Amino acid sequence: MSKKVVSIVLCAIMCLSLLAGCGSSGSAAATATTTAAAASGTAAASDKAYTMKMHLSIGESDPVYKSAELFAKTVNEKTNGNITVELYPSSSLGNTADCLEGLSMGICNIVYEATANLASISPLANIDAAPYMYSSVDHWRAVWEGEVGQKILKDMGDESNMEIMGAALQGIRVMCTNKKVESPADVKGLKLRTPTIPMYLDTWAWLGASPTPLGGSEVFTAIQQGTVDGAENGLTNIVSLSWHEATDYIIETEHVYTTDSFIMDKKYFASLPAEYQTIIRDAAVEAGKSCTDSILTATEEKRKICVDAGLEFVDTDVTLWQQALDGFLEAKYPGLVEYANAIKAADPSK
């Protein structure tokens, strides 16, 4: 038995060893296949093509539109043509409120507008329309190109379930009127067109004016017919909408520095490949900075147009307006006070 049994045992051991070796090789092959498939899947995700529709309320001649073109070009190039951003200016996809609502339904994919337009779904968004937050353009840049601005955009995004990226100075708001206004006392009873955003309505009501919410396209006729005495907006917008042709004065209140951002539905944005998310974020920042520079240049150009058209620029004492609004934010928007304090603390001149 001894030699025969030993031989049988040795054969069995050898067979088991061979089987084990084959199993190990099969497992390695399966692992390699799985890894290759995963790598292929990642590549496929990166190669997937996307077409994104962007809503803009402004026309093609506006510096904001030019910066949107820069954003679209940058994103397309850096994704090797896999993301195409189509621009729809002059509210051709619908008004801003409808397009913001439509982001989650895919009616459009990007809204490039003032963040204050999110006020109906994010109370924090009213901070964009809060009066006298900034002392200068340098102060505005310090906020929105720094940590304070990034925190505001993140908190606003969390509140609204949106991804909010980049910061562009849309303009510094002034008044255009048919009545000469030299101090806050002169706006008592003034019928002033404002956006429908709560902060604007409350600000002018606090000052004693009669704020009248109207769509931008309605303002020119409303001023001509005396429905309103004037409006307020950035100088580039005032000229591009031809409001200067219906008014006699530009009152240099400089009460709000309007900030535009690129807004996307958070769920849709998260569904994009991570590398594309980074490209879009970086392009938004780049386009925002470019827009700010262009707006500052364009504002001086529009100023000359207004002067040539015969409008009088009224240099009002801003401290009087600030005093008239003392306590306004604390009384009407206490939840924004912490953010307002952070903005003011970021002033590089102090």
Task: Describe the structure in your own words.
It is a single chain. This protein is an alpha/beta fold and 350 residues long. It has one domain: D-Maltodextrin-Binding Protein, domain 2, CATH 3.40.190. It has helices spanning 2-47, 63-78, 96-102, 137-144, 147-160, 198-206, 219-224, 235-240, 266-271, 274-308, 318-324, 328-332, 337-345, and strands at 50-55, 83-88, 110-114, 162-177, 191-194, 210-213, 230-234, 249-251, 257-265, 312-314. Helix 6 (198-206) links the parallel strand 5 (191-194) and strand 6. The longest helix has 46 residues, at 2-47.
Helices, by number, come to: 13
First-to-last CA distance = 101 Å
The CATH superfamily bears the name: Bacterial extracellular solute-binding protein, family 7
Strand content: 15-25%
Write down the overall geometry. Answer: globular
How many runs of DSSP E, i.e. beta strands? 10
* CATH fold call: D-Maltodextrin-Binding Protein, domain 2
Low-confidence stretches: 1-45
Largest sheet entry: 10 strands, mixed
Structure at a glance:
The chain is an alpha/beta fold. The protein has helices spanning 2-47, 63-78, 96-102, 137-144, 147-160, 198-206, 219-224, 235-240, 266-271, 274-308, 318-324, 328-332, 337-345, and strands spanning 50-55, 83-88, 110-114, 162-177, 191-194, 210-213, 230-234, 249-251, 257-265, 312-314. Strands 1, 2, 3, 4, 5, 6, 7, 8, 9 and 10 form a 10-stranded mixed β-sheet that branches.
